[in-house]
Design a protein that fits this description.
Oligomer: single chain
Mean pLDDT: 80
Radius of gyration: 46 Å
Number of domains: 4
Number of strands: 12
Strand content: 5-15%
Number of helices: 15
Order of helices and strands: HHHHHHEEHEHHEEHHEHEEHEEHHEE
Strand order of the largest sheet: 3-2-1-5-4
Helix content: 55-70%
Low-confidence stretches: 1-12, 528-533
Length: 533
């Protein structure tokens, strides 16, 4: 035999009040029908047949009470279970009165109490629903007893007993079914909560990804895009359900080309003129018919490639140090011994000088490469550039015996700051200023090298310019290639290493061609550089 569930609390939920409101609407409809049918003298004729006057009063009062109870349920007045018990008890009282004034249980109106018992089993838990079933059974027995006392011809106690048993069976069934439905509802709510939580987590992950994400449907409309994608593609604001061709025509053309050719890789896309490196787009077809586009900064990928290249170079220099440095030391030492043993021979002295000079040059190249391989990983920190550059110029002038007025600093943005590795940045600026000083000319004007600090297009820019003759066009193409130098005694690794360090810190080093002098430009984004390792 099924048992009642006694473990439910008095939790008053919105769903429970909604169910009570629905039952109140049923009550209002039933009361209106019972009153209207009798008032309009419509069938069935047994309604109010025993006591028409009392039937009219009871149904009218029941109709008015149904209106009040419907209002209280809709407004969620009072405690839920107290309100429900009170309403169900009133239903039993009024319905048994209507049944009695309509001729008793013989007309089948006792089934109206079954609905009340079902409502009790659904709306209130355990013993309380059993109480409603017992109260309905007691009301039926009292009605039968009253009919016998009043002198009715037939008293149907068996009918009343069967109806009472029906009440209890219905209460148990309604209680069991209600609990299962509540468990299913709770499980559905929990699953819905988990799905919403997972959706929010996915949205947070996608929005915080450094890789840009764009989802385009089969009609070419953007259904999803994260912040990184909008930044890389230069899209202002959040747009959805708009055509990709409208938001980014260049990417739309690349998507069309991918669909027609199914190529796996493409050259970078130039979305705007400010980003010289451009962006890389990768396409993936989804089962839903949509296309997932990954958008990455070409400069960021270039930084990673540079890091890998430097790592490979580091492994190579270990072999170079072992295979070349030791023999080179032996050659240099032998040259010194040869020079000492033939110091009076001018031909030998000339040849040994060549050996010593080129040995020193080779050793300098190896030292530079080794310094690159030993370079520690980037440890960025925030630097206020105006103060840092002032200190750097003072230090450079002291170490190289340069007059203070010969190197000038122009600051247009005194609060400009970047997030970089200070030691590596010092190495970059030392190389650039040293080269500028070497190629500058001592003219009538006192300034030979000028440094300019300013902000442009969301970038912090540092220009290093000398007053020399500039760099020939045929040489500019090879400026940043290793082991290529126009400077006497140079290794050709200074500018190459400076550019590598800038890229490792999220910046760029470029040469700006001008009619007079040479200008090198270091560019860093204002926001914190990403992908620093």
């Amino acid at each position: 035999m099924a048992s009642f569930n006694f473990g439910h609390g008095e939790t008053e939920t919105v769903a429970a009040w909604r169910e009570l409101t629905v039952f109140s609407a049923y009550r209002l409809f039933l009361a209106a029908v019972l009153f209207s049918v009798f008032w309009l003298k419509l069938p069935p004729e047994f309604l109010g047949s025993k006591n028409p006057s009392l039937y009219t009063q009871v149904t009218l009062l029941y109709l008015l009470l149904a209106c009040v109870l419907a209002f209280l349920s809709f407004k969620e007045f009072g405690r839920f279970h107290t309100n429900t018990r009170f309403q169900l008890i009133l239903d039993i009282v009024f319905l048994i009165s209507i049944i009695d004034t309509s001729g008793g249980l013989s007309n089948g109106m006792g089934l109206l109490l079954v609905v009340v018992v079902v409502a009790g089993g659904t709306l209130i838990p355990g013993r309380q629903s059993a109480f409603i079933a017992a109260l309905a059974t007691l009301a039926v027995l009292l009605e039968v007893s009253y009919s016998q006392i009043a002198g009715d011809d037939v008293t149907k106690y068996s009918h009343a007993g069967m109806l009472g048993a029906t009440f209890f069976a219905t209460a148990i069934f309604a209680q069991t079914l209600s609990q299962k439905m509540k468990k299913v509802s709770q499980l559905a709510d929990q699953r819905g909560h988990d799905v919403n939580k997972l959706a929010m987590l996915n949205q947070h992950i996608i929005s915080s990804m450094q890789t840009g994400i764009v989802v385009v449907d089969s009609n070419g409309r953007v259904s999803l895009s994260n912040h990184s994608a909008r930044e890389l593609l230069g899209i202002k604001g959040e747009y959805s359900d708009l055509s990709l061709r409208y938001l980014c025509p260049v990417l739309a053309e690349r998507l069309s080309l991918w669909k027609s050719s199914h190529r796996s890789s493409f050259d970078p896309i130039q979305v705007n003129t400010d980003d010289a490196a451009g962006v890389l787009a990768r396409f993936t077809a989804l089962e839903s018919g949509e296309t997932l586009i990954y958008v990455d900064s070409a400069s960021a990928l270039s930084q990673q490639a540079q890091q890998m290249k430097l790592a490979s170079l580091g492994r190579l220099t270990a072999s170079i140090a072992h295979e070349i440095r030791n023999p080179l030391g032996a050659i240099s030492h032998a040259g010194e011994l040869l020079a000492e043993s033939h110091e009076n021979d001018p031909v030998t002295t000339k040849l040994t000088n060549i050996i010593q000079r080129h040995s020193a040059r080779m050793n300098g190249i190896i030292e530079t490469i080794l310094s690159m391989s030993r370079r520690k990983k980037v440890e960025p920190k925030v630097i206020i550039l105006a103060l840092w550059l002032e200190s750097f110029i003072t230090e450079f002038c002291e170490m190289n015996r340069v007059e203070a007025g010969e190197i000038e600093l122009k600051v247009s943005s005194s609060l400009a700051r970047v997030n970089i590795d200070e030691e590596q940045f010092h190495q970059v600026m030392t190389n650039l200023v040293n080269n500028a000083w070497h190629y500058s000319e001592e003219l009538d004007e006192s300034v030979r090298v000028s440094l300019s600090l300013f902000v442009q297009n969301h970038d912090v820019i540092i220009d290093v310019k000398d007053n020399g003759k500039g760099i020939a066009e045929e040489v500019q193409e090879y400026l940043f290639e290793p082991f290529h130098s126009e400077r006497q005694g140079g290794t050709g690794l200074g500018l190459y290493l400076a550019r590598e360090l800038c890229q490792a810190n999220g910046g760029q080093l470029n040469y700006i061609s001008e009619p007079e002098g040479a200008r090198f430009r270091v560019t860093f984004p204002i926001e914190k550089q990403e992908a620093l390792h």
